[in-house]
Design a protein that fits this description.
Blueprint (H helix, E strand, L loop, with lengths): L4 E4 L3 H12 L7 E4 L3 H11 L2 E2 L2 H7 L2 E4 L6 H8 L8 E4 L6 H7 L6 E5 L9 E7 L5 H11 L3 E5 L5 H9 L1 H18 L4 H22 L3 H8 L5 H11 L2 H20 L4
Parallel strand pairs: 1-2, 1-4, 2-3, 4-5, 5-6, 7-8
Antiparallel strand pairs: 6-7
Helix pairs in contact: 7-12, 8-9
Length: 269
């Protein structure tokens, strides 16, 4: 018998998961969604053929609940769900910084919970979703989570103790690249290129470099060295990056992101 999946919270990430499941072969009749507004509900019904329901109805009728709300909304949502969630349900949280323990404590004892940290490239089916089991989740529950999030990119299982580090690297990771592209585009303008041309040059360089990293199997140092000729332009640029402490700044930035993720987990939002 097909399982029913409810996506609670259909913002960008929630809708990306919904569309990914449909492309992966899930039937609209097996999918439920919850929204904040009637207008949003009708858009999703029209776009995907899914049935908008209340949070309580989702908890009563779905086998798998995907909680795709903002971290600050999680407590209120769990209060609403708690009377209706039984231990034969699987609860998947996609909210940054929310631990499985927090969710388990809010629901019936023994409820299986899986924590997932996706990143925004799930919107183009190139996401990375980091998956961790709660204390009552089995390998089968993790398989269910992978089947859902694998439709919008890659998945990786890690112990929950590594989720804050994974959030710093992968969850926030796309923003660091956007920041770098923004800075390099400004540099291109300074060097005399029109903004559109500078942007296109950098974006294509980023895409090409990412594909080479993914497909070649080479260490990034080797790929960088292949572009770095003696006394050439690349080594001159890298010297300036090192002189300005870019490597150390990146390491410090990721440590700060990890620490902030830990703060969110303790409720210091």
């Amino acid at each position: 018998m097909p399982q029913t999946v409810a996506v609670l919270g259909t913002g960008k990430i929630g809708e990306a998961l919904l569309s990914g499941m449909i492309r992966a072969g899930w039937k609209a009749r097996d999918l439920l969604v919850t929204t904040r507004t009637t207008e949003r509900a009708e858009k999703l019904r029209s776009r995907y053929g899914v049935e908008p329901v209340t949070n309580a109805e989702a908890a009563k009728n779905a086998d798998i609940l995907i909680l795709a709300v903002k971290p600050q909304d999680m407590g209120r949502l769990l209060d609403e769900l708690a009377p209706h969630v039984t231990t034969d349900r699987l609860v998947i949280s996609a909210a940054a910084g929310i631990t499985t323990g927090f969710i388990e404590d809010s629901l019936a004892a023994g409820t299986p919970v899986v924590r997932v940290m996706p990143n925004t490239p799930v919107l183009v089916d190139e996401g990375m979703s980091v998956i961790s089991a709660g204390s009552h989740a089995t390998a089968e529950h993790l398989d269910h989570a992978e089947a859902i999030f694998g439709g919008v990119g890659k998945t990786l299982r890690v112990p929950e103790s590594q989720q804050d580090a994974a959030t710093a690297l992968s969850g926030s990771g796309p923003a660091y690249f956007y920041f770098l592209v923004e800075a390099m585009t400004d540099a291109g303008i300074l060097l005399g290129l029109p903004r559109a041309q500078a942007h296109d040059l950098i974006v294509q360089a980023a895409i090409g470099a990412a594909v080479m990293l993914r497909d070649s199997g080479e260490h990034p140092v080797k790929l960088r060295e292949a572009v770095t000729s003696p006394a050439g332009t690349t080594i001159s640029a890298i010297r300036e990056l090192e002189n300005h402490g870019v490597r150390a700044a990146l390491i410090a930035a990721l440590e700060a992101a990890r620490d902030r993720s830990r703060e969110l987990a303790t409720g210091n939002g």
